[in-house]
Amino acid sequence: MSESFVSVMMGSDSDLATVQATLDTLDALEVPWEVKITSAHRTPHDTHDHVRDAEARGCSVFIAAAGLAAHLAGTVAGLTLKPVIGIPMEAGPLKGHDALLSTVQMPGGIPVACVAIGKAGARNAAYLAAQIIATSDRNLADRLATERAVNAESVRNKDRDLQIKLGNKVC
Question: Do 59 and 37 share a domain, yes or no?
Answer without folding.
Answer: yes
